[in-house]
């Protein structure tokens, strides 16, 4: 007992903590730490554990089958041989070239011109940002209804409209980063006689590269997280394979308790497939320019 | 506005004017072409909402006639009839729940649920974010580095597939379809707000706390009576962007609180029901009414919202 007390006293002295400070820290950190332990550590470890089980209707519980990799093997088989499920992976993966290959470069160009004192730049910033604070259900329906049979756009615009790249959030972040670039750096370039393209590629982009890498990573993460846009544009999540995504499949089936092990294995397998690409993408992007403090 | 600010603004304007004058003809042409593209893009974002607005004042017959005539609803209503808005807000109802707990809810009721959920959850999230951020910024204790590392890992490593397990867990502990259950799902104290407030508290000198300690203030007293009041602008900014996120969220209330449909969730059900009756002007009114609170908040706090989004995501 005395030994424990002595240890506590040593720790308090080492960290310069009074009893009041220890109580204060414990009281205020209790909920966040418990919440983290439950929602992250426990739930994720349960997800991993359950992914190796199967539902047994006789005992109404999850049991470990003879082949503990049954769920994983089943999903690998489905991904390889069932077009419906491989299309889910394919649809999810398609968001990456759209977000990282089209939306992000467009956002960089748009942000650069907003940074260049384009007339009405504040107006554009507000208008471009507005959709990102509206409910997804309203936003997707507002666009979809216009393309409906009674809508105001024809079939050609319908295609273009759905592909309308959502650059709004990126533009606000990037123009914020560009606004922090010291004017002297840009002035030096101008004295050297560089044009818009050179200024953008040689001065502005290298300086805002960390923000671009962040947006690139967020864009790559959509492969595992995006579903609401497709859900509201195309309808039901359950059984929607043509436009379904990884997250949409989980969203459409989460309440089916008999399928929990399969869904857990599905989610984890998708993470295993896509997460290395996300990290690899980030690593490659980080190699292009060195981060500079300014 | 004081003289120094006026002077700074004048200098900035002068620099911008000088820069504009220095531009070559080619650069000016490029900028105007880009300006034209930007205008077109802005119009493409606004047109759907203008179209909804115009048609929301029409009767069902007038809208159908417009569709038949092929103008795609791009015409002014003969008469600005606001009855659709009354119907959208109060008259039209959807059935929620099942069995004895089943009841009809209108958009006004959904606003009530949204306000209740958003206000309580925002308060809790802002409080816990501030508390955790303050402790992590100002105190040194065993395990601090570990907690910080775990929080960062949880933010960076995306693990999907835990939704069914979480749903099952919430059912097991009896928190599914309850308000405290949604609070539990939403409020963590370790999210975006934590990062924002952590940076803020790191910037506050500890001398304020030391002075208060000399006057006999406890650790709780310092936090509640000195640090929190000093952080009101940051807390308000965080509350605004957090509240917008909760107000718009669809998935969490849909999954964990189906008996209390918020605007984002209920609007989906409302529009599906209205589509069955083909009363599109009523549906447009519902959609527009649903975004009014967000637009009002955005109009009032536009600078705060945008600057905080920038501050939160500027560095990799």
Keywords:
heterodimer; A: 294 residues; mainly alpha; MetI-like fold; two-stranded antiparallel sheet; B: 316 residues; 2 domains; 3% strand
Description:
The complex is a heterodimer of chains A (about 290) and B (about 325). With about 290 residues, chain A is an all-alpha fold. Chain A has helices spanning about 1-15, 20-50, 70-80, 85-115, 120-130, 135-145, 155-160, 170-180, 185-190, 195-205, 210-225, 230-235, 245-255, 260-290; strands at about 55, 60-65. Chain A folds into 2 domains: about 1-50, no CATH class; about 80-290, MetI-like (MetI-like fold, Orthogonal Bundle). Chain A has 14 helices and 2 strands, in the order H-H-E-E-H-H-H-H-H-H-H-H-H-H-H-H. Chain A has a two-stranded antiparallel ribbon with strand order 1-2. In chain A, a hairpin with a 4-residue loop joins strand 1 and strand 2 (about 60-65). The longest helix of chain A is centred in the middle third of the chain and has 33 residues, at about 85-115. The termini of chain A are far apart. Mean pLDDT of chain A is about 80; it is low at about 155-165. Chain B is mainly α. Chain B has 2 domains: about 1-45; about 105-315, Orthogonal Bundle (MetI-like fold). Chain B is about 75% helix and about 5% strand. The two termini of chain B are about 35 Å apart. Classes of the chains: A mainly alpha (about 290), B mainly alpha (about 325). At the A-B interface, helix 2, helix 5, helix 6, helix 8 and helix 11 of A face helix 1, helix 2, helix 5, helix 6 and helix 7 of B.
Question: Topology, pairings included?
Answer:
The complex is a heterodimer of chains A (294) and B (316).
Chain A: H1 2-14, H2 19-50, E1 54-56, E2 61-63, H3 70-81, H4 83-115, H5 121-129, H6 136-146, H7 155-162, H8 168-179, H9 183-191, H10 196-207, H11 209-225, H12 228-234, H13 246-253, H14 260-288
Antiparallel strand pairs in A: 1-2
Helix pairs in contact in A: 3-4, 3-14, 4-8, 4-11, 5-8, 6-12, 11-14
Chain B: H1 3-22, H2 25-56, H3 60-69, H4 83-91, E1 93-96, E2 103-106, H5 107-138, H6 144-156, H7 163-172, H8 179-186, H9 192-202, H10 207-214, H11 219-230, H12 232-248, H13 251-256, H14 263-277, H15 280-313
Antiparallel strand pairs in B: 1-2
């Amino acid at each position: 007992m005395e030994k424990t007390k002595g240890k506590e006293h040593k720790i308090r002295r080492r960290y310069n903590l009074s009893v009041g400070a220890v109580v204060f820290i414990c009281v205020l950190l209790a909920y966040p730490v418990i919440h983290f332990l439950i929602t992250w550590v426990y739930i994720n470890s349960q997800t991993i554990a359950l992914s190796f089980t199967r539902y047994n209707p006789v005992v109404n519980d999850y049991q470990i089958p003879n082949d503990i990799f049954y769920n994983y093997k089943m999903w690998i088989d489905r991904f390889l041989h069932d077009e419906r499920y491989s299309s889910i992976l394919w649809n999810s993966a398609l968001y990456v070239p759209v977000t990282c290959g089209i939306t992000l470069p467009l956002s960089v160009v748009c942000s650069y011109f907003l940074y260049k004192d384009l007339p009405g730049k504040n107006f554009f910033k507000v208008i471009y940002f507005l959709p990102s604070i509206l409910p997804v259900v309203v936003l997707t329906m507002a666009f979809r209804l216009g393309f409906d049979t009674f809508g105001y756009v024809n079939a050609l615009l319908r295609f273009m409209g759905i592909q309308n790249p959502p650059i709004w959030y990126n533009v606000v972040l990037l123009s914020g980063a560009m606004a922090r670039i010291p004017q002297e750096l840009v002035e030096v370039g101008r004295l050297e006689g560089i044009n818009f393209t050179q200024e953008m590629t040689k001065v502005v982009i290298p300086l805002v590269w960390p923000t671009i890498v962040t947006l690139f990573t967020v864009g790559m993460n959509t492969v595992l997280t995006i579903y609401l846009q497709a859900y509201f544009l195309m309808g039901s999540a359950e059984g929607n394979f043509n436009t379904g995504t990884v997250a949409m499949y989980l969203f459409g089936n989460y309440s089916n308790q008999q399928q929990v092990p399969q869904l857990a294995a599905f989610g984890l397998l998708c993470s295993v497939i896509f997460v290395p690409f996300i990290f690899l993408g980030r690593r490659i992007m980080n190699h292009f320019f060195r981060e500079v403090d300014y | 506005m004081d003289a120094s600010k006026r002077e700074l603004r004048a200098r900035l304007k002068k620099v911008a004017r000088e820069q504009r004058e220095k531009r070559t003809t080619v650069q000016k042409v490029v900028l105007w072409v880009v300006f034209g593209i930007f205008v077109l893009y802005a119009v493409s974002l606004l047109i759907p909402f203008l179209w909804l607005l115009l048609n929301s004042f029409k009767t069902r017959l007038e809208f159908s006639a417009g569709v038949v005539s092929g103008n795609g609803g791009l015409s002014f209503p003969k008469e600005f009839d606001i009855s659709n808005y009354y119907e959208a807000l109060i008259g039209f109802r959807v059935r929620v729940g099942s069995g004895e707990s089943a009841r009809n809810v209108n958009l006004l009721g959904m606003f009530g649920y949204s306000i209740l959920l958003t206000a309580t959850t925002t308060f809790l999230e802002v409080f816990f974010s501030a508390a955790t951020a303050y402790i992590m910024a100002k105190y040194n204790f065993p395990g601090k580095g570990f907690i910080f590392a775990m929080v960062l890992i949880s933010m960076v490593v995306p693990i999907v597939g835990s939704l069914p397990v979480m749903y099952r867990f919430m059912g097991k502990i009896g928190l599914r379809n309850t308000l405290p259950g949604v609070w539990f799902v939403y409020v963590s104290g370790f999210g975006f707000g934590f990062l924002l407030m952590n940076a803020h508290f790191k910037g506050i000198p500890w001398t304020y706390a030391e002075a208060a300690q000399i006057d006999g203030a406890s650790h709780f007293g310092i936090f509640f009576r000195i640090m929190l009041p000093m952080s009101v602008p940051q807390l308000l900014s965080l509350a605004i962007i957090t509240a917008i996120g909760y107000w718009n969220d669809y998935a969490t209330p849909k999954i964990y609180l189906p008996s209390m449909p918020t605007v984002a969730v209920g609007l989906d059900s409302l529009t599906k029901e209205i589509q069955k009756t083909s009363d599109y002007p009523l549906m447009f009114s519902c959609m527009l009414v649903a975004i009014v609170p967000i637009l009002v908040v955005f109009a009032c706090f536009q600078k705060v919202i945008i600057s905080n989004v920038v501050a939160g995501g500027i560095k990799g």
